[in-house]
Amino acid sequence: MENLVKDILDLAVRIQSIPAPTFSEAARATFVRDCFESLGLPDVEVDEICNVYARVPGKDPADARPVVVTAHLDTVFPASTPLDLAFEDGRITGPGIGDNSLAVAGLVGLARMALARSEPLPGDLWLVANTGEEGLGNLCGMRSVVDRFGESPAAYIVLEGTALGHVYHRGLSIRRYEVTVRTPGGHSWAHFGRPSAVHVLAQLIARLLEVPLPIEPRTTFNAGPIAGGTTVNTIAAEARVQLDLRSETEAAVQELAKKIEAFAADLRCEDVEIEILSIGDRPGGRIPVDHPLVRLAVNSLDQLGIKPALKIGSTDANLPLSRGLPAVCIGLTEGGGGHTTAEFILTKPLEKGLAHLLDVVNGALLAPPPTTPAAPPSSPAAPQPPGSRPPSSGYYTGSGHPASSRGRPGRPGP
Known about the structure:
This protein has about 425 residues and is an alpha+beta fold. Helices cover about 30% and strands about 25% of the residues. It has helices spanning about 1-15, 25-40, 95-115, 140-150, 195-210, 250-265, 290-305, 320, 350-365, and strands at about 45, 50-55, 65-70, 85-90, 90-95, 125-130, 155-160, 165-170, 175-180, 185, 220-230, 235, 240-245, 275-280, 285, 310-315, 325-330, 335, 345. Strands 1, 2, 3, 6, 7, 8, 15, 16 and 17 form a nine-stranded mixed β-sheet that branches.
């Protein structure tokens, strides 16, 4: 295992050195394809949006449902960002090393571990390095993955480089809008009194700030990039802002979106045009804490001596969860500084992270076909009678103890 850990870290460094901003992942996709082909994996391909697929054949794919493991290729950093790394004892620092270069390297490591087993995994293991997870990628890569495999997999397992010990089984509902205000504009002295696009946009944001947001379900909004006007003495003819709305439920996001439209309608007049454009929709969803896949991930961490934390966040797992499909997002090691050039990973926990990954994959491949329809994606788990036990899963669950609801609030995600 020591040699494998070193190889994966070396591979993560090579992957990190290839710029891969969202929508520009082709070079990194080609590199990952070559890595899969070098292992002799079948069905290696790169699709039209640069998702990279490969299959590790299972022992009896006719009887065992496949498992799909994904890791996103893209980063938040522009192609011009210097990608220098700093190496310390037990630590690697640099933009994108944890999010998500290490996870992409982990796909290759998982293939190597599966191929090195004394006997094949129970069923087929599909590995996918997907695009479009960050920013305005709108989960386009994962959307294509789920469209391709649908309900056939026993589980979708999403990898992140860091967050070892976290089990993301709930996905935040997220909607993003760009609001553009247009007015005739004019001279700040000669035409004073005409509406300014900047002023109107500021009024709209101010009204949003006055909206009381619920604590349960937790709901937030953010006014992100904002721009407008031309000179200090010109009444702005155009201004725009991008808004990010998030909640633990889809209904709360929809309600906040309706308020934005209502505020815009109130501010529109003969000389004020307001356009609201949807620029992102990350559907939410969940599987309950007693779902066999959650229990499997939690029990695996317990056996490795890692305290599990059940989380909600924004990851590629949102997509299958939104369709009522079993999915979790797990991490390979510990780290910090995400989405900054000071991002870092710790190298020592990676060995346990790889063992955790293989344990979850193997357990998920042992899952039987579902006997009941999936619950609606935004519905909480059905209440259980007092003293009742969670349903038997058929998954290998290690110690067999059901998952608890322990854990802190989840990381926000992209």
